[in-house]
Amino acid sequence: MKPAFSLHPQLAQDTHFVTDLPLCRVLLMNEARYPWCILVPRRAQCREIHDLSVSERTQLWAESDQMSQALMFLFQPDKLNMAALGNVVSQLHLHHIARFQADAAWPAPVWGKFPPQAYHPDAAASRIQALQEVFD
Q: Taking every annotated instance into account, which residue ranges of this chain make up the domain HIT (predicted)?
């Protein structure tokens, strides 16, 4: 029997659930300064992209493209940053961050620049709803 997928506790703590795509769970990072989503393949014990099958890798890139297009459509950023670092959370996850020349960290990376600024619950709900509508 295959182990069941479970979301890393740090990702669960730092994000809001948006939706599930065929392969990935879509999460909204609880950082109100930047439109920032994370894709997490729903596969147990998956740490690296090469841990996925060839067809799953293809699906991951399709869903990453879908995420990128959603962020571009909703927010019209100056740049879209993508990363799969995994130094703190080893579970495979891909960050998609809409960046603006006027944002607080520009042009530096967002990681560790400032303490996270959590969404107000109403703002989080509104952003989640907008993302869900684009994915539906």
A: 38-106
Tokens 């967002």 map to which residue? 110
Q: Domain for residue 88, yes or no?
A: yes
pTM flag (> 0.90): yes
Q: Find tokens 């147990």 and name the residue.
A: 44
With residue 130 as reference, give the H or E element that holds it: helix 121-135
Domain holding 118: CATH number?
3.30.428.10
Domain count for the chain, please give it: 1
Give the residue numbers spanning the domain of 75. 9-135
Round to whole Å and give the CA distance between 119 and 75. 16
Residue 69's region, left for phi above 0, alpha for psi from -120 to 50, else beta, is alpha
Collapse the DSSP code of 60 into the 3-class scheme (helix H, G, I; strand E, B; otherwise coil) and give the result. helix
